[in-house]
Every structure is written in C-alpha cells, then in structure tokens.
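Batch job 17 of 40 flagged for manual review because the log was empty.
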Amino acid sequence: MKKLLLSAMMLLTTQALFAQVTTAKMVTEWERAKNYTKAYLDAMPDDGYAFKPTPEIRSFAQQMGHLADANYAFAAAATGKPSPFEGSVEKMADQSKAAVSKATLESYDFIINSLKGLSDSDLPKDIKVFGMQSKTGVAFEKAFEHQTHHRGQTTVYIRMKGVKPPQEMLF
C-alpha cells in the first residue's frame, strides 16, 4: 500500500511540474534554442553549407532549411497566423551561409513572437496540426523536439568538415 501511495504521489508531482509550462518559459527555451542554432550556423564554414555526408541525404543547408520550414509550419498551425516566409527554406535557390542563416534565424523569431502573442490559457486549446488533433502548447513542444533533432544531426556534418561543434547549451 505504501508503494502504491508513493507511486501516486510521484506521478502527481511530475504532472504538477509539467503542468507549469508557461508561454514565458517556452519563450526562454526557444530563445536559447535560437542562440544554439546560430552557433551551429556560424560554426559551419561557408563551403560546408553544400556538404552532404552521403549523396542521398540533405546538405547542411538543406537540414537547416528543413528545420526552419518546420518552425514556420508549426507556429502557423498553432496560431492560425500565416508564415511570413514564402516557399521553402530547404528548397530556396540561394543556399549560401548568409541566406540560410538569415531564414533559419527568422524562423525562430516567428516562433518566439508567436509565443509572445499567446497567453498561458491558449496553450491547452484544441487545434489541428498537419491534419491531426493537438493542443497549441503541444504543437510548440513538437516543433521544439523537431528542431533539436535536426540541429543534432548536423553535428556530424560539422565534425566531418574538421570543425568542433558548439558546446551544448542546456541552460
């Protein structure tokens, strides 16, 4: 009985911690993620933006473009506001360091400004994301997971170009 009571208390405590996610906390995390991604964009040499570790996968620029496209898409879906970016960052003609960095960092600005335009009471609202039922807050959490995944993939690209990737920025 004691184990069951202890387990229930731990579950409730964990749920309470996660229930305290606020738009302000999300903005802080997205600002950190933007700075971390900028460090990755800056670390890759200009000639590394076209680099592909193997022919069948995305280039570094395309990985960052894919990350940016998803940032725009998730924030637009979560808020109902249209993406300010026309087309696709991943497929834009100019895949230079300057162009990809600018578009990618602007995708973070769109996410951050979208979150700043929400209240905490907006986070549990029902929405559709890519045709699936979700909540506003969950859409931003999935976007965060997605950008973390693709940024992490580019660590290998940077190392293969002989550059040390940026130090992890957990806090």
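Reviewer: the log was empty due to a logging misconfiguration, but the result itself is present. The beta strands are 126-129, 132-135. Unflagging and moving on to job 18.
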